[in-house]
Design brief:
By secondary structure, this protein is mainly alpha-helical. The chain has three helices and no strands.
Length: about 60
């Protein structure tokens, strides 16, 4: 299961349009949600937004 997980995620991301909504597109939302679910160091959404801001992704709380 674990070795095929990246392939499953990549196939899901390929299906999502990168430019469907002007503020928060579906692909970015999915990537943010997936990061929050899989990263055990994140304890709150505020931690996630802090990490995204340092990664160069502009997301407003």
């Amino acid at each position: 299961m674990l070795p095929s997980f990246p392939n499953i995620i990549k196939s899901l991301l390929k299906r999502l349009s990168p430019n469907d909504y002007p503020v928060l597109n579906t692909r970015l939302f999915f990537e943010i949600w997936l990061t929050f679910v899989l990263d055990r160091s994140l304890m709150s959404m505020r931690d996630l937004f802090y990490q995204l801001k340092h990664a160069g992704i502009s997301v407003d709380i």
